[in-house]
Amino acid sequence: MPHTAEQAFTYLVDPRLRPEWQSSLLSTDVPEDEEPHLGQAWTELTVVGVRPSLVVFEFVPYRSWAERGTWRGVEATLRLRFTETARGCRVVAEGEVTGSGVYAVAAGSSGLLAGRAIAADLRTATHRIAQRKERPADG
User: Fold this and answer.
1) Is the four-CA dihedral 52, 19, 6, 30 of positive or negative sign?
2) Which of 81, 90, 83, 52 has its CA nearest to residue 68?
3) Distance (Å, rounded) from C-alpha 77 to C-alpha 109?
4) Contact 25, 125 (CB under 8 A)
5) Element (H, E) at 116
6) Within 13 Å, how many C-alpha atoms sit on residue 126's CB side?
7) What is the DSSP letter of 73?
8) Residue ranges of domains in the chain, CATH in brackets
9) Distance CA 95, CA 76 (A)
10) Separation between Cα atoms, residue 116 and residue 54, nearest integer Å
11) Which residue, 78, 99, 130, 138, is the most exposed by fewest CB within 10 angstroms?
């Protein structure tokens, strides 16, 4: 990303901003004034109507962040690692989706497709961060 690790981390780990860049999300249920932190919990509404509950279980500012989401028999984890580079930062995303019972096959399919979706979402986030940098602070 052509942004600092601080800029990327600050934007990407804020669940209030996720619907701006994560294509699978319609909304998140997070208090407007709640800043991202270890143990933060919220729910999301996805485009397919699923409402997972999520919690942050790793939070090292500008270095790494991870969440775990659950919905019925499905559990998903997403970890982001941030490394400064000469031209901004590198964001490495690692995810895993598992399921039990009747959700095992659906979870496996979701996991196979997740890598491409995450890469596309991070490209969108790159553009959104740039747009935020161009806007005045009050607007």
Assistant:
1) negative
2) 52
3) 15
4) no
5) helix 104-134
6) 13
7) T
8) 5-134 (3.30.530.20)
9) 7
10) 21
11) 138
Rounded to whole angstroms, how far apart are CA atoms 131 and 129? Answer: 5
Q: Where are the beta strands (DSSP E) in 1-139?
A: 25-29, 41-46, 53-60, 64-71, 74-85, 88-99
Distances (CA, A) of 41 to 22, 70, 139: 18, 11, 28
Q: What is the pTM of this model?
A: 0.88
- Please identify which residue in the block is written with the tokens 């143990």: 39
Under 8 Å CB-to-CB from 10, ≥6 apart: which residues?
none
Phi-psi region of 101 (alpha: psi -120 to 50; beta: other; left: phi over 0): left
25-82 pLDDT tens trace: 999 999 999 999 999 999 999 998 989 999 999 999 999 999 999 999 888 999 999 9
The whole-number pLDDT of residue 136 equals: 62
Q: Specify the 3-state DSSP secondary structure of 8.
A: helix
| C-alpha gyration radius of the chain | 15
Give the span between the Cα atoms of 136 and 7, in whole angstroms: 16
User: Can you read off the two tokens belonging to residue 26?
Assistant: 């319609």
How far from each other are the two terminal CA atoms of the chain, in whole angstroms? 24
